Amino acid sequence: MTPQEPTADEYYVDSPVVREFIAAVQAARAAEPDPARLVEQLRPAFSRLLQTDGWLPDEFARPYEASGMGGGIGQYLLYRSADRSLSLFSLVVPAGSTTPVHDHLAWGLVGLYRGEQLERVYAPIATDYDAGQANLELIEERTVRAGEFYTLLPPTDDIHSVTTTSSEASISIHLLGNDTGCVVRHRFDPETASVTPFRSGYSNVPCEDQARS
């Protein structure tokens, strides 16, 4: 094992609420390998997390001007497993801002903790990522309010953008089956049918290759 390899889970918000939630997630993962059944089993615990006040510190609920997504969007790592197969993070989207159209490349649950968002969901019609081409079809627009959440199960419903429609920043909580901020994903431009690789990063924690450079 090299010194750079992680050896323990990382809690950037270390509270009983987060510890209890992660324990429930890890117990469910150990018993259920199928992502579709897993996310269904995790719905009650995720709903409780969204409806519990006071566990998210203010420093993880602020816009971030140096955002990898642009628009002052803050992405704050709250928890990451040692093997990088699970992450929990908050996404802060200022009022009126919109994320790029992007994918996640992992199963997940995404829900609103504060504010309101308009989510636009896309389906790929034809893609050639090596050539930088991706034709997308807008298949759904929906309003997401505080306490509401949805699932991600690639390749279905994995490409979307969100716009904050509330007068204050929206804060969403993401539970993903990868180290989302540090994996290379895809940013799409539906108007030009183009796609480029991107890594959003975290606003509070560098990715490992950044930390070593």
Automatic annotation (TrEMBL):
It comes from the Bacteria. Gene3D superfamilies: Jelly Rolls (2.60.120.10). InterPro entries: RmlC-like_jellyroll (IPR014710), RmlC_Cupin_sf (IPR011051). This is Cysteine dioxygenase type I.
